[in-house]
Specification:
Elements (H helix, E strand, L loop, with lengths): L9 E8 L3 H7 L5 H10 L2 E8 L9 H11 L4 E7 L9 H8 L10 H9 L3 E6 L1 H4 L4 H10 L3 E3 L7 H7 L7 E3 L9 H11 L5 E4 L6 H10 L4 E2 L9 H9 L5 H15 L10
Parallel strand pairs: 1-2, 2-3, 3-4, 4-5, 5-6, 6-7, 7-8
Helix pairs in contact: 5-7
């Protein structure tokens, strides 16, 4: 795919790295850090947040997090630590019963893990994927609140915006809801997420996998300081995500906010000249 031509500085808040064969087998997308960097360059993306792809059930993210941090050295990647937990993210009676008996296992994130990642200058935030990894316990979330680093959350039909509100928005840390909270392609959930932006000052959304122009434009026009660019790479070529924003009927100033100003405010390590 040809490289895009534009005059924007673009940083990406939503990319994943599969650092080893086990991750590739579980996640199903074999792409090297070099290829991801090359695709980012083709799209004009100068720096990107990266966290591990999905691990097999019962596996810790400790080694994968450290691998992503190692692979980010001397590359335009900003490492985020991915956290898992024993709690079922559902809201039904079955989930409620399961959570009454949910006990943390050895492979689940612990408060000390969060503290270690928070003080390790290789990591600049956290990633939660409750539909696949479960929800961390309250003591882990409380430690995230103390760290006050951005937490990128993958929601959607299996962890809808109302569940995000119930489980996470009561804590005082920045939450960035991937895909406007509507993955995969659920416009009702996306619109519900945009309603929540009016209620919670520390809630943000990224543009990955939204695909609907009118919803993207609504988000950017109504909440210009709370929308950040995310490509969803490597599952989507970064060119695709960039083009979806470039073709919106909004001003260049608003595009610059989405592509760089808003992400840099959330993740200072994405700034030009930042020491990462």
């Amino acid at each position: 795919m040809l490289g895009l031509e534009h005059d924007f500085r673009i940083v990406d808040t939503h990319a994943s790295l599969d650092p080893d064969e086990a991750s590739v087998a579980a996640h199903g997308r074999d792409i090297t850090p070099e290829r991801l960097e090359r695709e980012m360059h083709q799209a004009g993306i100068v720096r990107a947040v990266a966290s591990p792809g999905r691990r097999a059930s019962g596996r810790s993210y400790l080694r994968a997090n450290n691998a992503v941090a190692r692979l980010s050295v001397d590359r335009p990647f900003v490492a985020f630590a991915r956290l898992n937990g024993p709690r079922d993210p559902g809201s039904g009676p079955v989930s409620t019963v399961r959570n009454l008996r949910a006990e943390r296992d050895d492979h689940h994130a612990r408060p000390d893990d969060v503290e270690q990642y928070s003080y390790d200058d290789r990591f600049h935030g956290f990633t939660l994927v409750p539909p696949y990894d479960g929800l961390p316990n309250a003591d882990v979330l409380e430690r995230l609140e103390a760290a006050d680093l951005p937490v990128f959350v993958h929601g959607g039909k299996r962890f809808p915006p109302d569940a995000v509100e119930r489980e996470l928005l009561g804590y005082d840390f920045p939450v960035v809801l991937a895909g406007f909270g509507g993955y995969p392609l659920d416009t009702g959930l996306m619109n519900r997420t945009l309603d929540l932006l009016s209620e919670y000052d520390r809630l943000y959304v990224d543009t990955s996998a939204v695909r609907y122009r009118e919803i993207l434009e609504r988000g950017v026009l109504e909440h210009p300081d709370r929308v950040v660019f995310g490509s969803g790479a490597p599952h989507v070529h970064p060119n695709v995500g960039v083009m979806e924003v470039l073709t919106l009927d909004v001003s260049e100033d608003l595009m610059r906010r989405v592509f760089a100003k808003n992400p840099v405010r959330l993740v200072p390590a994405l700034a030009e000249g930042a020491d990462v």
